[in-house]
From TrEMBL, chain A:
Family annotation (Pfam families): ThiS
Domain of life according to the entry: Bacteria
PANTHER family the record matches: MOLYBDOPTERIN SYNTHASE SULFUR CARRIER SUBUNIT (PTHR33359)
GO-annotated molecular function: nucleotide binding
SUPFAM superfamilies named among the record's database cross-references: MoaD/ThiS
Official protein name in the record: Molybdopterin synthase sulfur carrier subunit
Organism encoding this protein: Sphingomonas yabuuchiae
Keyword hit for Nucleotide-binding: yes
UniProtKB/TrEMBL annotation, chain B:
Keywords annotated in UniProt: Molybdenum cofactor biosynthesis, Transferase
Assigned EC number: 2.8.1.12
Family matches, as Pfam families: MoaE (PF02391)
Organism the protein comes from: Sphingomonas yabuuchiae
GO MF entry, a single one: molybdopterin synthase activity
Family: Belongs to the MoaE family.
Quaternary structure and partners: Heterotetramer of 2 MoaD subunits and 2 MoaE subunits. Also stable as homodimer. The enzyme changes between these two forms during catalysis.
Nucleotide-binding in keyword set: no
Keyword Transferase: yes
Pathway assigned in UniProt: Cofactor biosynthesis; molybdopterin biosynthesis
Catalytic activity: 2 [molybdopterin-synthase sulfur-carrier protein]-C-terminal-Gly-aminoethanethioate + cyclic pyranopterin phosphate + H2O = molybdopterin + 2 [molybdopterin-synthase sulfur-carrier protein]-C-terminal Gly-Gly + 2 H(+)
GO biological process, one term: Mo-molybdopterin cofactor biosynthetic process
Record's protein name: Molybdopterin synthase catalytic subunit
Length: 85, 146
């Protein structure tokens, strides 16, 4: 399954890109699985995904916890807690 | 009527007020957030999640409209680089009387702080850092759920 992943703020900076399309391995079921899988890429990915408790996510633009299933989503976003206003 | 705007342009208070006043409302409460020059900040940059941001703001405004008898609500949020003293966000809530307008206005900005995908990056000279989320903002948003 192919999935578009979006990164924002320091997650984007550490990874070095704002967006990419990946083919998910079968064992990646939840957003947390995705974070763990991305961390195995090492370098900036490992740095960005080092502390999952500092990450927030959205699946198809709906905000979810890291335990949420990715299902047939087309887009997952990974980012730090928001700081607008 | 709900108006949501996320833009790099400066926020025009008079124009936004005039839009609300043209809708035959009784009371308008407003909140405007400015860039603070905290510890020598000389630039604040706002990043957001296009599409998801507007949807989140729309949802927050709809929730306020279900909770209070709102006649109009406006949320304007600036993105991109800005300087101390410039406006970052404007929230307007209009109702027949002040209590609903004031409470809805507080609700809109409290929820925006925790539920809309914006991220602030401060620059002081050569040093840039991402602003950390604050527990007090989460507490402010949660008081509306009790």
């Amino acid at each position: 399954m192919t999935l578009t992943i979006l990164y924002f703020a320091w997650v984007r900076e550490r990874i070095g890109q704002a967006e990419e399309t990946v083919t998910l391995p079968e064992h990646v079921v939840t957003v947390g699985d995705l974070v763990a899988w991305l961390a195995t890429r090492g370098g900036g990915y490992a740095e960005a995904m080092a502390e999952p408790e500092r990450l927030r996510a959205a699946v198809d633009q709906t905000f979810v916890g890291l335990d949420a299933a990715i299902g047939n989503a087309r887009e997952v976003a990974i980012f730090p807690p928001v700081t607008g206003g | 009527m709900i108006r949501i705007l996320v833009s790099v342009a400066q926020i025009d208070l008079a124009e936004e007020m005039a839009r609300i006043e043209g809708q035959d409302v009784g009371a308008v409460a407003s909140f405007c957030g400015l860039v603070r020059a905290d510890d020598g900040v000389d630039c604040l940059e706002l990043e957001h999640y296009p599409g998801a941001t507007e949807a989140a703001l729309e949802r927050i405004a709809q929730e306020a409209a279900e909770r209070w008898s709102l006649q109009a609500a406006t949320i304007v949020h600036r993105v991109g680089p800005m300087r101390p003293g410039e406006r970052i966000v404007l929230v307007l809530a209009a109702a027949p009387h002040r209590r609903d307008a004031l409470d809805a206005c507080a609700y809109l900005i409290d929820r925006l702080k925790t539920d809309a995908p914006f991220w602030k990056r401060e620059t002081r000279g050569q040093d840039a850092r991402w602003v950390e989320a604050r527990d007090s903002d989460t507490a402010a948003a949660e008081r509306w759920t009790s």
